[in-house]
Amino acid sequence: MSETALEEVSVLSSIYCREGEFILTPRAAQDGLMVQINSTVGAERRLDVSLLFHLHPSYPSCPPAISVCSTSLSRTQCQDIRQKLLDQAADLPPEPMVHQLVEWLQLCWEVPEKCKEEKKEVEKEEEWTAVLSLDHIRSQSRYIGLLQRWSLQLQLTGRVLLGRSILVILQGARPSIKEFCRLLKTVKVDVDSSGRKCKERMMKVLIESPLSPLVDTGSRVLW
Question: Where is the RWD domain (predicted)?
């Protein structure tokens, strides 16, 4: 990471200093940093929003990747915020911009009139549960980091069971689960026995059914 990016992260930790407001997740050198800022948006209604910025090693020469999730907003509204932040980032010069993006969101984004009652009736999308079987996890920090990022981007709840069998349990919209599975098979998520990056070609969907509550099995909750 550049000195400029590291300095920005230090400043952000000072600005967003309330408990749980700023979370930094170090990545491998080639993967950059993950910065999570928990904020509120909207002048009339203060709505909680979690913003995840993936700062690539070349940042700020390139804009950050952004994910948005919220228990106060619908999936459509979160996607709308994410797109507006990406558009805003694309218009900014190549310099530290995370604080500027968060401030812009806090000051400029408002809940559209037609969406103000959506919290009372959440999107009428049927929720599903899926259980996936993974072949191996050798580069655990990289692999699980990608799973976390995809689940945030796709608005999924998940957990991983690490043992003799490696299982991933997902809950959320069925199209999002299908996209998660597609990413697993098409993106290089791990390394093979020779240390080369590889895709999860051996992933299997063991169960896919309408939503049932996650049970406490002593598994490791990762996102």
Answer: 7-112
Q: Does domain 3-115 have CATH number 3.10.110.10?
A: yes
Fold of 127-210: Alpha-Beta Plaits (3.30.70)
Give whole-number Cα distances, 149 to 10, 34, 52, 98, 132, in Å. Answer: 22, 9, 9, 18, 17
75 and 174 in contact (C-beta within 8 Å)?
Answer: no
pTM for the complete prediction?
0.53
Q: Which CA distances in Å does 43 have to 18, 80, 109, 111, 202?
A: 20, 17, 8, 9, 48
Sorted by where each begins, the domain ranges of the chain are: 3-115, 127-210
- Encoding tokens for residue 30? 């080639």
What was the pLDDT predicted at 113? 46
